[in-house]
Amino acid sequence: MAKKNKKSAAAEAAAAAKQKEEEEEEEEEEEVEVEEEMELLQVDVGDIIKVKQILDETVAGTFISEDLSAHGEAVQLQEEYTNDNIKLLLMALACGFAAVAQFGLAADFPKNRMWLGVCCASYFCISGILQLIMTFVDKDCIMMTKPLTDPEAIKLVKKGGNKEMNKYGIRVRSQFPRFSEFYTVILEFQGKDPPSEFVMGTWSVGQFFDVDGFFDEEGVMLEIEELYRRFEAGKFDKPDGEGGSKKRKKSSKKNN
Predict the structure, then answer these.
(1) What whole-number distance in Å separates Cα of residue 172 and Cα of residue 190?
(2) Which residue pairs, CB below 8 angstroms and at least 24 apart, start in 246-253?
(3) What's the predicted TM-score (pTM) here?
(4) What is the pLDDT of residues 140-153, one digit of tens each?
(5) Residue 215 pairs with which residues in a beta bridge?
C-alpha cells in the first residue's frame, strides 16, 4: 500500500513538473510574439512630411484606443467622419466628370465640345472647392470626434471636470513647422464658438526618434494619453499672453 502511494505521488510530481515546463514554454513563446509585435518602425528623419505623417497617424490611432480615458473603457471616443465623407463625395464627383470627358466625349470632338467644356469646367470647379475646404476648413486638423452620448460616460467625465464633452466633439490639430524640431498637438472643442478651451502639448521629435530613425510609438501614445486626460479633466491651457501656452511649451522643452 505504501509502495502504491509512493508511485502515485511520484506520478503526480512528474505530471506537475511536465505541466510546469509546458507553461514555461508557452510563456516564452508569448514573449517572443510580443517582441515581434514590438518591432520598431524606421524612417528617414530628414523627410519632414513622412515624419509628420507617422506622428499624425499615431496621434489619431491613440484617440480611438480603449485605454485612452482615465475612466477606462467606460468612456469611448468615436471618430467623426462627416467632413471626410463630404470630401470623398466631391472627389468621386470630380473623377466622374473627368472620366466622362476622357472616355465618353473625347472621341466625338469637336462635335460635342460644349459638353466636353462643361465636364472640364465642372472638374476644375469641384477640385477648387475641395482645395478650399482643405485650406480654410480643415487647416491643421487631423481628426475629429463625436460628442459623448453614453449617459454613464457623460456622468464620469462631468464628475472629472469637463462639463461640455456631451455637447461638443474634440478637434485634434497638429503643427510641425518647416525647419522646426518641435511637434505640437492641440485639443479643442469642435463646433464651439471661438475662442474654444484647449490643451496643447509640444515635444521635440528627438524624443520619439533616435539617430537611426527608429520610432518610439508607445512614447507618443503615452504623451497623447496624458494630454487628453488633462482635456478630459477640464485642466485647460490659457491663451498666449496669459502665460499658459508658453509655459507648457517651455516645460516640454525642459523635459526633452
Answers:
(1) 9
(2) 248/200, 248/201, 248/202, 249/182, 249/184, 249/200, 249/202, 252/182, 252/201, 252/202, 252/203, 252/204, 253/182, 253/202, 253/204
(3) 0.75
(4) 999 999 999 999 99
(5) 41, 209
Residue 211: the pLDDT is: 87
Q: Which among 207, 161, 212, 211 has a CA at the least distance from the CA of 185?
A: 207
Residue 178, SS3 per DSSP: coil
Q: State the CB neighbour count (10 A cutoff) for residue 58.
A: 20
Q: What is the predicted pLDDT for the residue at 251?
A: 42
Query: What pLDDT, on the 0 to 100 scale, is given for residue 254?
Result: 45
List the chain residues with pLDDT less than 70.
Answer: 1-18, 20, 22, 24-39, 106, 241-256
The per-residue b/e assignment along 14-30, b for 16 or more CB within 10 angstroms, e otherwise, is eeeeeeeeeeeeeeeee
pLDDT number for residue 29: 62
Q: Cis peptide before 147, with omega less than 30 degrees from 0?
A: no
Contacts 24+ apart (CB under 8 A), 96-103: 97/122, 97/123, 97/126, 98/123
Amino acid code (one letter) for 39? E
φ and ψ at 175, to 5 degrees?
-135, 130
Whats the size of the chain, residue-wise?
A: 256
**β-bridge partners, 175:** 184
Rounded CA-CA distance 209/202 in Å is 15
What's the pLDDT score for residue 12? 65
